[in-house]
Amino acid sequence: MDKPIRHTFSFIGERFEKILVIILCVQLPLLLLHSLITNYIYAVTPNVGTIYSVADIYYALFTILFFIYAQIPFVKYTFNELEGRENSLQNALYTFVVKGFPIFLFACLISILSIIGFAFFIIPGIVIMAVFITAPIIAIVDNKSVWKSIKEAGLLFKKKFIKIILLLLLWGIIEMVVGIVLNGLILNITSSYAAIAGVQMITNMIFYPVFLVLLTTYTLKWRAGLRKLV
Asked: Under a CB-based contact definition with an 8 Å cutoff, are residues 157 and 181 in contact?
């Protein structure tokens, strides 16, 4: 794993069919649920004329929550494959279904803290995300409580905070730019909301797994480096 970026694309290319199974079984249903919930919130929440409405806050809250929660099977599958374990896909899906609830609760807390942070000029929210983003990965890899992984996640952030923040920002910016370009192309053809929402989902289904495999690979590499220093 000396070259995580090259390894990530090679990893996904060689295992695309199985990663697609995780996308269809986990990520897509969560994206549909996210769309259903947020659309309902926008429909019932009055627009008070401010820059950010209450609905926007809920949208960001659920986006971060699902962003953290949905990573479980991707991280577990990546780690299983790197370790050469049998039935890696089945075990990843099992982990999501049976052992995902504590990480869901963790995601709820971090999403709330991040939204509070974003209210203060965005940067604190990004920092909060960066501090805790590796905790679920550590918990999944070590098969331990996510709450017991926070300390090591904080240590990783202390040592690699620039790389973690840049990774989050670059992923977000690239996906946003691609999404804007694709939405522009779609709007030239149709103004259908379903088409626009579909493009957004497809964009996320492409970029999200790549980001998680890359983040998992980097996290494992950083942990190995820290252990050499201890």
From this structure: no
